[in-house]
Write a structure and sequence with these properties.
InterPro entries: SoxG, TrmE/GcvT-like. This is Sarcosine oxidase subunit gamma. It contains six helices and ten strands. The chain is an alpha+beta fold. It has two domains: 103 residues, Gyrase A, domain 2; 82 residues, Heterotetrameric sarcosine oxidase (Alpha-Beta Plaits), CATH 3.30.70.1520. The strands form two sheets. Strands 1-7-10-9-8 form a five-stranded antiparallel β-sheet. Strands 3-4-5-2-6 form a five-stranded antiparallel β-sheet, covered by helices on one side. The protein is globular and about 60 Å long.
Amino acid sequence: MAEPLYRTHPLASRRQALAELSDQVDGLTVFAEEAVAAVNLRIDPTGPGAEELGRALGTALPTEPNTWTHTTDGQLVWLGPDEWLVTDTRIDTRPSEFEKELGRIVSAFDGAAVDVSAQRTSIRLHGSLARELLSLGCSLDLRPSAFPPGSCAQTRIGQAGVLLIALGADDFRLFVRQSFAEYLADWLLDAAEEFRAPAQISTNRQ
């Protein structure tokens, strides 16, 4: 009888290194987040479908470019003039059912809902050094005045395309395609070396 297959987190092999970095560097906490249900939405933001969708999600669709808002159970992130990413963090939410639930709403208004839960994973980065670390590999102006809480952007960190979300003044979520997740984690670990104390750097290289 074949052995059952169990899903492994894309960053399972990097969790310990990220935890050690968080322990060793004051002002920096980095960790891999658990998977969430995620659906890509396409709908006319000016039509009745957007209003119906907003009622279901508990919030209006953000229409200002590069912004996001909270839903009842997750986030609603602007991706384009008629495109959003919505997440649901409830542990009992089945991605396929989430897709069907939203699909029933938007399909009545010539919209579309596609389950993209397996497309990306996310890394959480917060602390007083978070913006400085990200700025080492991102071309965006990440000063608080230019990228305040409530902002989001599709950009690059190093060579990885990410969806960068400002959750708070020094709190960020980085959605990244699963195939680039280990690269991004390694990039963060390498870029953060300059924040470690000299003794810690020497120990890590032994």
